[in-house]
Each structure stands twice: as structure tokens, then as C-alpha cells.
Model the fold of this input.
Amino acid sequence: MRKLSAFNLATLVLGIAFLYLPIVILIVYSFNASRLVVVWGGWSMHWYAELAGDAPLLGAAFISLRVALVSATAATVLGTLAAVALVRFGRFRGRLLFAAMIYAPLVMPEVITGLSMLLLFVAISVDRGFWTVVIAHTTMALCFVAVIVQARLVDFDMSLEEAAMDLGASPGRTFMAVTLPLILPAIAASWMLAFALSLDDLVIASFTTGPGATTLPIRIYSEVRLGVSPEMNAVCSIVVAVVGIAVIAASLLTKIGAARGAPAGN
Amino acid sequence: MQTVGSKQGVARRDFAPWTDHTLAPLLRIEGLTKRFGAYPAVDNLSLAIYPGEFFALLGPSGCGKTTLLRLIAGFERASAGRILLDGVDLLPVPPHRRPVNMMFQSYALFPHLTVAGNVAFGLKQEGLPKAQIAKRVGEMLALVHLENFGSRKPHELSGGQRQRVALARSLVKRPRILLLDEPMAALDKKLRGETQFELMELQRRLGLTFIIVTHDQSEAMTVADRIAVMDRGHLMQVAPPAEIYEQPNSRWVADFIGSVNLFEGRVGLDGSSVEGTALGRLRVGAKIAAEPGAPVWVAVRPEQLRMGPNPAEPDAQWALENDVAATLADVAYLGDLSIYRLRTAAGVPLQASRANVGPFAPRTIASNDKVWLNFPRAAAIVLTQ
Done:
């Protein structure tokens, strides 16, 4: 391995610090015993204990989890179907338009997605609440799922499916017995990503939520506007942990999938 | 047309069902066409394959041989024509209901299943009872000498072992026809040679019909009872290996199979010589099936050219045959034989080969040496197209 020069080391440290110092400070201060956010008063689990008794905050966290679970699952199913359609059905009429429409939300500013969702729900007079947030998050996460699953399907050896059919498996059986097991890691990874995306979304959720469906990020944001409390630091630390685990799990699953799906020996 | 020591059906002496008009073919292809866009990959092709045949589709890449195989398997949809198996049209039948199985060039082993799981896959689709599946998988693995590898995953096997798993998987359902798509392309040369003989042995033992696609002529000639030489979607010639080599029906086949010296000329007035070639007048063995004056080509295989330091003796057996003076340009020494590239005084390139045997292995001939070449009239293959 090449040795790091002093310059390389310095840029590496600065880069990592730039990315992670704020989060490290947040996590450290969540263990601060002092009520004043910027004054260090020694280590304490006090704010985590406080959190356990904060019913509105716990309620918001519970809503966020439910939204994330439902929208991640829906986005995974729809995104996988979209990816299969894009990869397997060749050049059907309107394929390019379909692909563009699937990927557009990737680069669409969240404010616009959120606002357009809000306008739609108002226009068709749907009461905003839990389900409108779920729908909005599903559309947002769907495109990420489609991209991940499509990448896996593109380097999927088509002759595996042909071999299954050749051996007597109907197209449906072939998908269930061969295709699905081989792309499952990619599907699981995209579910994790969709879950994490939904869990920490503030912008789209605040456009599409309604009474009784305050998600955790909305709750945190509104609390912090009145002043940063150490309790919020504790909540955020937990969210960082949950999202971090989900993202790491997703990347591990992608790696396993790539290793497993590669044609043996090639 | 006269042939030189023709021994047809070298592999199996009395096996030639295609000559027996009372037999019904197992597979009959009629006017089959497959177009990709405007380009015909298989063009109005007709063919009959008989039960128990080991049939090879041979041709350069892009000649349509793989497309033809995939049409039989059902992975491509024909543009026109019929494929009849035992008289029943296969074209409306989806691939998973066709009684043929395919061994893929990439092997296409399911990476998430074990070796036994791969072999059992086809039987599971038939809904056989578990005990029977296990028994037949065991028999199949024994047949390909992989009894102890059932619980391994494909990526834990060597290339040769994977190839045998793929073979076992495609044979376990006892297909009416086994389709093999370049089955030995991924093996090294030595293993390929052994595998070719094992494959022939297996085919004879099981009494199945095999259709193999290959671009390797020596492989096709080794394993097949009959070879179909294909070019641009057409069948150029369908015949046993010896006939393909010794009696090619066109310049294209003569040139594609092995090496050949080709000379263009016109049929002589006596009907058994060709005049006006680059080597002058050439005497050929039999009466040419063309009018005097018609353009024809004379093909001579390199191993038929005899090389010597002197012209043929007037009283020798070859005296009245074809005698040419040439200069040796270079020699390729290949161990078992050497290939000699020569040039006549008029600059016509020639190729000769000779087995390196005997005390006078022709290593004594060096570049720029003058030599005499002659070939018996029976060695001259006359081609009218």
C-alpha cells in the first residue's frame, strides 16, 4: 500500500471532519448533563431518559416508523416492477418517456415534489394525513428502488432465465425460482434505502402531512425553532443510529448480491 | 466425382439413417426463416435430423447456427417456416413445454442452487415425487462422475466440473433432442479433446439425438455423424465429416473446412482436365459434370501435394499426373506435421503439408530451395460453384 503523504493525510482529515464533525458534536452533546446546549456539564444519559417520557415526541417517532415501513414496502414493490419492465420488455413504445418519468424524481427538488403533491391532494380534496405522507414518500423512494434493481437486472445473465424455461419452468415459476432469489439482495438493499429516505424526510412530509400525522423530522424541526434543547440532540442521535444501520445494511446486501449473482467463475 | 480413400461414416460404420428413405426423421425443419429487422439470420432453411444422430451445425460467427438452435429450443420466434418434431409443429409450443433441452455456452448454472439442486430443477418442474428426483439426480451425477459434488455450489467447481453439471442438468429430463451450444468453448484444449470423446460415448450409450453448435471444425468432425456447414443463414452442405472434407460441394465449403489450394480454369475438351489455370493444364480424376469450356475450380488439399527434389520420373506412377516446379517460401513446423508455403515461378502461392515421420523428415528442405510438387489426378477436387 502506498504511504499517505502529509498533504494527503491533511486533506483526508479535513474532508472527513467537514462531513462528520457536526454529527459527532451533536452526538457528544446529546450526552451533556447541562441544560444549556453549548455549555459542557459532564456526561449524562439524562436527556435520553427525558425522551422516554415525552409522549408527543414518541408518538411522532412511531408515526415516522409506520410511514417509513409502509412507503418503503410499497416503493420496493412498484420500483421493482418498473425496473423489470424497463430491463425485460426491450424497446416498447414510450420506453424512453417511461424511463425519464421514473428517474425524474431523483433530480427533482423536494420542494417541487412536495408542493405538487400538496396541490394534487387539495385538487382532488383528499384529507391530508398519514396516507398522503405515505403516498408522497412512496413516489419519492420508488425511483431510487428502480435505479438499484435495474442496475442488478442489467448485468443479470439472461441465459439463467432461459435455462429455467428450457427445463420446464413457466415464465412465472422462472421469475419466482430463479430471478427473484438472485435479485433479492438488491431488492432488500433498496427497501433499506427507501426506509431511510422516508424516515429523515422533512420537506415532502411537511407539505403533505395533516392533523394527527406529525412525523419525527417535522416535530424536531418545530421544537428546534423555539430553541435547541439537549433532548433534541438525543432524538437526532437515535435517528442517526437507525439510518446509519439501514444504509450500512443496504450496502452490505448490495455487495452480497453482486458476489452471488455473478456467473460462477467468470 | 472420384474421392480419395473415402470412408464415410467413420465414427459408426453402418449408421447412416439419412440415406434410408423409409425412415421418418425425428426433426424436420421446413422453410425456416428468422429475420432480425431486415437481416435474415436463418434464411428459408430446410433440414431433416434422424433419431440417434449426433448432428453438428458448423459455420463462422454470425452464420445463424446459434439462432437455428435457439429457434428449436423456442427462445427465438420464427418469421416463417415450420419445425416438426415427430411430425408435430413445435413453433406454437412455448420453450418450457418443448421436449428438448439445451446446454448453454455459459452453462447458465443457477448460482443460488447446489449442484444437485441444479440437476433436480427440471425434474421438480415435472412434479415428480422427491424420492424419484433424488434417485435420478444421483444417477445423472454418477454418469458425469460428480457423485461427491452434489452439495457444492457452482462457484466451488472447476470449469470442467461446471461443464459436466450443465450436461447432467440438460440430460436429466431425457430430452427427445439435446441441443448443445458451443459446449466446450470454455474448456482448455486438452480437456476439450477428452470431453469430445466422452460426449460421443455418452450419446451412444443413452441413444439420444444431439445437435451441437460449434465454430471449431475439428470438434464438429470429431463428434458428429453429419455436419451442416452454414453461411449467412443458408446450409452450404450437409454430409458426414469425411464427405465434407473430401467432396466439398462448393469453393466456399472447400475453403472453410481445412486448408485448400484453389485454381480457377475451364473444362478441357476431353472433359477430364481443366485448362488455363494458374498452374497450366491440370488433369483430374473423373469426367467433369460440366460442358467443355465452362468455368470450374480445382481444389487440392495441402497434404495431397507431394514434394520432391526432382520432377516425377517419366516411368513413375505419377508421370502423367500434375507436376509443378516451385520455390519454398517458408516452413511452419507444428511437431506432428509441417506446413510449407511455396511459390511457383509465375508467383502462384501454394500450400503443402507433410507429416514429420521417417528418417527423412523433410526438415532437410530449407527456404528458397527449388522443389517439385505433384498431385495425383484423383486428389483434384473439381468444383463447379
